[in-house]
Amino acid sequence: MMKKDLGVKPYLFPMPVLMIATYGENDKVDVMNMAWGGICASNMVALNISEGHKTAKNIKARGAFTLSVADMEHLAEADFFGIASGNKMEDKFERTGMHAVQSSRVDAPIIEEFPVTLECKVVDIQPCGGELHIVGEIVNVCVEEKVLDSEGKVDPKKVNAFVFDQFQSGYYAIGEKVGQAWESGKKFM
């Protein structure tokens, strides 16, 4: 099989569709859609955000954020949060008709419509290649009961999340279970 060199590109698949929610001036809710982040330890997340984003300024000022998993039901709103800039659009969050409540654990909003939310406090911010590398400690995960299975665990099918495609800038539905982690490869042991 022949492979072709494509040069330096951010080509990993799938990429998460993460909703970062923060408070700005006057407790104004801001939400940003981003794919360049994820779990980096059992109780930590890492984000890479350009310093010019309103979200980056809010995180630096408040020391907290929430990170939600976008679901199919709110794909248009999630995409809008990636299109519109909070620096240029004063009513960005309000235009979607979504709702937010104050987290009781961190100085950041929880977007009520997203089914899974990680409440995070900032533990480190480092400049890295013109962006900010932000590490947040997960202080709590709150979920809608409707996405839990009979054992109280999050059921990915019920979350109804989607992923981002770095290759062609598309969104893809996920949900079909095709194997069991730490089990499917045991035949090679």
Give the total of beta strands: 12
> What are the secondary-structure elements, in order, as H or E?
EEEEEHEHHEEEEHEE
Strand content: 35-45%
Number of helical stretches of at least 4 residues: 4
Please give the order of strands in the largest beta sheet. Answer: 3-2-6-9-10-5-4
What structural category arises from helix and sheet content? mainly beta
Quick structural summary:
The protein has helices at residues 54-62, 75-83, 92-95, 156-159, and strands at residues 15-16, 18-23, 29-34, 37-41, 44-50, 64-69, 100-102, 109-111, 116-128, 131-143, 162-165, 170-173. By secondary structure, the protein is mostly beta strands.
Structural commentary:
14% of the residues lie in helices and 38% in strands. It is mainly β. It has a 7-stranded antiparallel sheet with strand order 3-2-6-9-10-5-4. A 3-stranded antiparallel sheet has the order 1-11-12, with no helix packed on it. It is globular and about 55 Å long.
Q: Which characteristics define this entry?
A:
mainly beta; 189 residues
Secondary structure blueprint with pairings:
Elements: E1 15-16, E2 18-23, E3 29-34, E4 37-41, E5 44-50, H1 54-62, E6 64-69, H2 75-83, H3 92-95, E7 100-102, E8 109-111, E9 116-128, E10 131-143, H4 156-159, E11 162-165, E12 170-173
Antiparallel strand pairs: 1-11, 2-3, 2-6, 4-5, 5-10, 6-9, 7-8, 9-10, 11-12
